[in-house]
Automatic annotation (TrEMBL):
GO molecular function, one term: penicillin binding
Primary localisation category: membrane
Gene3D superfamilies: DD-peptidase/beta-lactamase superfamily, Penicillin-binding protein 2a (Domain 2), Penicillin-binding protein, N-terminal non-catalytic domain, head sub-domain
Protein's name according to its UniProt entry: serine-type D-Ala-D-Ala carboxypeptidase
Organism: Pseudobacillus wudalianchiensis
Pathway(s) where this gene product acts: Cell wall biogenesis; peptidoglycan biosynthesis
Catalytic activity: Preferential cleavage: (Ac)2-L-Lys-D-Ala-|-D-Ala. Also transpeptidation of peptidyl-alanyl moieties that are N-acyl substituents of D-alanine
Domain (Penicillin-binding protein transpeptidase): residue spans on this chain: 348-687
Places the protein is found: Cell membrane; Membrane
Length: 738
């Protein structure tokens, strides 16, 4: 039998399978090779690109809008100045900033006046680590290690134990470094902080510019500062702005931050600069900074170009303003040199257009002696922030209140005679020109000669009181509230609505006895501001419309061309706050009485305005009362009685038949013994009106079609009618001498 042998089968791998393996191997090899290149050769570049992940947008400050007067004269400007800034990168360490501050301190001089004791202590601890550690005992360190004392408490203990001797080891150079470091840390990361922008010399600017490569975050640039064309004019009204060092006011930080401000932004702090902050602030430059993870700026891109703020055109006529201030200074200076006016220290003048409410002049000067040297300070703000008893200038309101309440009628005659009431201690209430006897006078005669008794009897008629010699004064308790309510229609005792903050409303006296309601009728009880007087006389001048006074005429777009003003953005329109309840004929009757004051044969101001061709009308006023000025406390400390003083005032308008200008002159505490001599109110008022019409005539000759600002556009305004409050002037007696 034949035996069969089994043959083993040979395994064969198909060719295509081998090819597949080869291709896979080749692909993996290429992938590994590529990864090697990415990881080893290009790894750092790709890592850097991965880290470029942050875009930080910051705002750069721009100059504020300019301020011009109504004729296009610059009042407040911006001036460029060299500046050195620092932009702190995100994650910048204390050591890095100190190192940069030390380098910069060698290149510039830095004032150290803002460095506080706390700043010095913090810096001392940084510079003296070993000594700082020794301020803490071993036992205290042990407690700190066991978390019985927090790091914050430990640091405070070190601060408390730094002595004056320790702080004296800080050199002048150390303090300069500290002052610079303080600026470095005062703001947000990525936001430029001003290190120095005052008195940066050309040498400092150049040497810092040359060394920027070794001063990370430091830059040289151009900053701006506010420049005032007139040093001692309207400064109290224009207000001021915070410095870059001050930044946002603490009490308003949240308000401004919510409106895209930065903490170190300069903002208006007072009056016009504050009131019109939103107009003047401008549109900031927006810059997008591309940074790496370390906070280093890799690239910057301007997202939005900035633009300085809009410009303001004031209603103020600077030529008239300066002329009126000169008149005040001359009259006040002469009075002080004469020596008979020891308590006189200020004069106010408000000039306005009675038809639009535009304030043409807001002038005030205060005589101050400092370190033995006399000076005249700007006190224009006092026209709306201080108040005084005004005397007979308000008698026009008293007569019109009599008409409006039906107590008297135009042309009514009343008997002017000394009034005696029970309980008055024998004192009489009389007119200055009639100390005895009786005479029938009309309302216009009463205004012309400034009769007190006519006003007393008008108030008594309003209060349903009948006069009996030596009898009691039984007058309605509603008399004073009623008269105040009507006086408010003229702007007396309420806010005028001017577009400035902190306006005062005056002081309302407390009615402790019936006779005080009579004193109110002659302006010897409540107090009013000079601005209120100007609004009051304007209301009479224009036929009974109380216009809202305003100091800004227009808002204009900024343009680059020097000395030019851009197109109008907004024109402030006149606004009527209210109209008197009086009829046109009643208002006309009082206007004629005011005309008689300056033109009548016995007018109290006739001799001061005789011969003028601008046909004025107005009312004089003298208020007698105890002194309540700045030296009041000196009298009280010495135990002396306050002296009796006289405020002399004047209101008026011109021309009588077509009023274009109204004014108020207020001279507090002008005299101590008598108001008869050299009335400052009339001297000032005459010169102010003379200057107004002189300027008008001069401009009519010089007028050309190329004027920068249209002289004939009348700006106007809108408001709300509110109430006022301010100074007091407790007066006694009712003597009115003019």
């Amino acid at each position: 039998m034949v035996k069969k042998t089994k043959r083993k089968k040979k395994t064969h791998v198909p060719f295509r399978m081998n090819m597949m393996f080869f291709v896979v191997f080749l692909l993996f090899s290429i992938l590994i090779f590529r990864l090697g290149i990415v990881q080893i050769v290009q790894g750092e570049d790709y890592q850097r690109k991965i880290e470029r992940t942050e875009d930080v947008t910051v705002n750069a400050s721009v100059p504020r809008g300019k301020i011009f007067d109504r004729n296009g004269q610059i009042v407040v400007d911006n001036v460029p100045q060299n500046a050195i800034t620092y932009t702190r990168k995100k994650g910048a360490t204390q050591e890095e900033m100190l190192e940069t501050a030390e380098k910069l301190a060698k290149l510039i001089d830095k004032e150290t006046d803002q460095v506080t004791e706390r700043d010095k202590k913090d810096y001392w601890l940084i510079k003296n680590e070993e000594k700082a550690k020794k301020k803490i005992t071993d036992k205290e360190w042990e407690k700190a290690n066991e978390n019985e004392i927090s790091s914050k408490e430990l640091y405070q203990m070190q601060l408390d134990r730094i002595t004056e001797k320790d702080l004296k080891t800080l050199t002048k150079q150390d303090l300069e470094v500290l002052a610079i470091y303080r600026e470095f840390t005062s703001g947000y990361a990525m936001t430029p902080q001003v290190v120095k922008n005052k008195n940066v010399s050309e040498e400092e600017y150049a040497v810092v510019s040359e060394n920027l490569a070794s001063l990370p975050g430091v830059n040289t640039t151009t900053d701006w500062d506010r420049a005032y064309a007139y040093d001692n004019t309207l400064k109290t009204v224009l207000g001021n702005i915070s410095s870059s060092r001050e930044g946002l006011p603490k009490e308003m930080v949240d308000f401004y931050l919510s409106r895209d401000y930065s903490r170190n932004d300069r903002v208006g702090k007072s009056y016009i600069e504050y009131q019109y902050e939103e107009v003047l602030r401008g549109q900031k430059t927006k810059v997008k900074n591309v940074t790496d993870k370390s906070g280093n700026i890799l690239d910057s891109e301007v997202v939005r170009e900035g633009q300085r703020g809009n410009d303001l055109v004031l209603t103020i006529d600077m030529d008239l303003q300066l002329a009126v201030e000169k008149i005040i200074e001359e009259e006040l200076g002469q009075a002080k040199r004469q020596g008979g006016h020891p308590l006189l220290d200020r004069i106010f003048v408000t000039v306005m257009d009675p038809n639009t409410g535009e304030i043409l002049t807001l002038a005030g000067k205060q005589f101050v002696v400092k370190d033995g040297k006399a000076e005249m300070r700007d006190f224009a703000l006092g026209n709306l922030t201080t108040s005084y008893t005004m005397g007979s200038v308000v008698k026009g309101a008293t007569v019109l209140t009599g008409y409006m309440t039906g107590a008297i009628h135009p042309g009514e005659y009343l008997v002017d005679e000394p009034l005696k009431f029970a309980g008055s201690g024998g004192k009489t209430k009389s007119s200055w020109f009639n100390r005895g006897g009786a005479m029938g006078i009309s309302d216009q005669y009463a205004l012309m000669r400034s009769s007190n008794v006519y006003m007393f009897k008008t108030a008594m008629k309003i209060g349903k009181a009948k006069y009996r010699p030596n009898g009691p004064l039984r007058i309605s308790p509603e008399t004073l509230p009623t008269m105040r309510r009507y006086f408010s229609q003229f702007g007396l005792g309420v806010r005028t609505g001017i577009d400035l903050p902190n306006e005062q409303v005056g002081f309302q006296g407390e009615l402790t006895q019936p006779g005080l309601a009579l004193d109110f009728a002659i302006g010897q009880f409540d107090t009013y501001t000079p601005l209120q007087l100007a609004q009051y006389v304007s209301t009479i001048a224009n036929g009974g419309y109380r216009m809202k006074p305003h100091i800004v005429k227009e808002i204009r777009q900024p343009i680059a061309e020097t000395g030019k003003i851009g197109p109008v953005v907004e024109e402030v329109e006149p606004q009527v706050l209210n109209r008197l309840d009086a009829t046109p004929s009643e208002i006309k009757h009082v206007q004629e009485g005011f005309y008689a004051v300056m033109h009548g044969s016995q007018g109290t101001a006739k001799k001061y305005f005789a011969g003028v061709d601008y046909n004025p009308a107005g009312k004089t006023g003298t208020a007698e009362g105890l002194y309540d000025g700045p030296k009041r406390e000196d009298y009280l400390k010495r135990g002396e009685q306050l002296p009796m003083t006289w405020n002399v005032n004047l209101v008026g308008y011109a021309p009588y038949d077509n009023p274009e200008v109204a004014f108020a002159v207020v001279v507090p505490w002008a005299y101590q013994h008598s108001a008869n001599s050299a009335p400052l109110n009339n001297n000032v008022g005459r010169k102010v009106l003379d200057k107004y019409f002189e300027l008008k005539a001069q401009r009519a000759k010089e007028e050309t079609p190329d004027v920068v600002i249209e002289k004939d556009i009348r700006s106007r305004d809108s408001v709300e009618d509110e109430e006022k409050s301010t100074d007091s002037d407790n007066n006694e007696e009712n003597t009115e001498e003019e």
